[in-house]
Write a structure and sequence with these properties.
Layout (H helix, E strand, L loop, with lengths): L4 H9 L53 H4 L9 E4 L20 E3 L5 E3 H7 L2 E8 L2 E7 L9 E2 L3 H15 L9 H4 L13 H5 L20 H9 L14 H7 L14 H15 L3 H10 L8 E4 L12 E3 L1 H12 L3 E2 L2 E2 L3 H9 L17 E3 L2 E3 L5 E5 L3 E6 L4 E7 L10 H15 L6
Antiparallel strand pairs: 1-7, 2-3, 4-5, 4-15, 6-8, 7-8, 9-10, 11-12, 12-13, 13-14, 14-15
Helix pairs in contact: 4-9, 4-12, 8-9
Length: about 450
């Protein structure tokens, strides 16, 4: 997780008199086929040989290509709380298509490819496409199978945002009130005078730098958050906060609230604390009660917890692929599932409307003219997306009656790396499926 510490120390001490030579460009990462965890025999045998082990205590679980195994096996590496399903309502209806693999498109970076090739380019672990509620395409790769839980990472945020909009619609949460007024423990933090809505739309001025491009010699904000969440061991001299709540309370204010959108997982941690305080239930219990027990899910889900049992609401959820798609389909259907209202219509309208486009920072491929609000991403064409690092996502296109759920293990965390392929690929599938409904 760290850059070259010796070089960083050299810069910090001022010992470098001349700019260092520009290092050669790193080689491209190995392909999806070359890093298939089954091919590499990661964690196979009893016990697995040391060179094929994926571990928490040495952070090897976060190193590519080990991550291609980790993301489908998080419950074997970190503590979690279960999110139990209710009575199964039967499998999703199927109307599979045999023509989608050949659908061609041009990526935003100019590459020509077909849908099947795009799965490998994006290191896809699993993908399911629903059209009008029917499974038209489903594929599993790497270490993932249909019954397995895979890390959803920041897709978790969209579950939290949906919970928040639901409580607003029910009159139990005032989006204009300050976070500190709901959670006194946050009153003295950077979140104290931020409103609930500003946290929901990630427009707070809290001092937190969410950079996934490595770290310098000292521990970064992101590293401190992961240690607090229980995702990484503490260095021997660590002095940071212990636990997700303590981490949110430790953050100071850096600027005014209500400015432009700045992506920050810390906002979700603070928002989740508000929801827990209002309801008296943990985030995992709320997701279970409102969604998992009511949508006929096929598998249980889980949420990673810190050392005191608090769930990591900003990115700790793991679920099966079809169940992620069920949630997306419920949102597409206006919050209803099999005749029952799951999410109030007002909450769905808020999610589909999105945040203020004027506050949205450009630079996200395929998101020009879009917005961020209620912990969901919105494209200019009206599609909404739940997005997690390394390629996780739910894509909802109401006009095309389309839902796509995907799990991935892309070697680059930030989704700017996969969106140049992801967005036009999804658009191409939508176009094929809406061509009169015929092949």
């Amino acid at each position: 997780m760290f850059r070259d510490v010796a070089f960083a120390a050299l810069l910090l001490t001022g010992a470098a008199q001349e700019p260092p030579p520009v290092p050669p460009a790193p080689p491209p990462p190995a392909s999806a086929a070359e890093t298939d965890p089954n091919r590499l025999m990661l964690m196979q045998d009893f016990p697995p040989p040391a060179e094929r082990q994926v571990r928490w205590d040495d952070r090897s679980m976060w190193r590519f290509p080990n991550t291609r195994w980790t993301f489908s096996h998080m419950r074997e590496l970190a503590p979690t709380v279960g999110i139990r399903r209710g009575p199964a309502a039967g499998p999703l209806p199927r109307a599979e298509r045999d023509d989608l693999d050949a659908v061609r498109f041009t990526a935003l970076d100019g590459r020509e490819m077909n849908w099947r090739d795009s799965l490998d380019v994006n290191y896809t672990d699993g993908i399911v496409v629903l059209h009008r509620g029917h499974v038209v395409y489903e594929r599993y790769l790497g270490a993932l199978g249909p019954e397995d839980q895979h890390m959803a990472f920041s897709v978790t945020k969209s579950f939290v945002g949906t919970l928040a909009e639901t409580l607003i619609a029910e009159g139990r949460l005032d989006p204009g009130r300050t976070i500190g007024s709901y959670v006194p423990e946050l009153a003295g933090s950077g979140f104290g005078d931020a409103t609930v809505r500003q946290a929901m739309d990630m427009r707070t001025g809290v001092a937190f730098d969410e950079s996934y491009v490595g770290m310098v010699a000292e521990i970064s904000d992101l590293t401190r958050m992961l240690i607090a969440a229980g995702w990484s061991p503490e260095p021997s001299d660590y002095w940071g906060p212990d636990g997700n709540h303590a981490f949110a309370a430790s953050l100071a204010k850096r600027g005014e609230h209500g400015g432009t959108f700045v992506y920050s997982t810390a906002n979700t941690s603070a928002l989740a604390w508000v929801l827990e305080r209002i309801t008296g239930q943990s985030i995992a219990a709320q997701i279970e009660a409102r969604y998992w027990s009511r949508l006929g899910m096929e598998q249980d889900a889980s949420l990673t917890v810190d050392r005191v049992g608090t769930g990591f609401a900003g990115g700790g959820m793991a679920a099966s692929l079809r169940d992620l798609a069920r949630f997306g389909e419920m949102i597409r259907l206006g919050g209803r599932w099999q005749g029952e209202e799951i999410v109030p219509p007002a909450a769905i309208r808020a999610i589909m409307r999105g945040g203020d486009p004027a506050a949205f920072i450009t630079g996200y491929p395929g998101m020009d003219g879009g917005a961020y609000g209620s912990q969901w991403w919105r494209r200019a064409g009206g599609q909404v997306m739940a997005i997690g690092i390394h390629g996780q996502g739910i894509y909802i296109d109401p006009a095309a009656e389309l839902v796509i759920a995907r799990f991935g293990s892309h070697p680059v965390a930030g989704n700017r790396a996969n969106h140049p392929v992801t967005v036009p690929a999804y658009e191409a599938i939508a176009a094929r499926l809406t061509q009169g409904g015929a092949r």
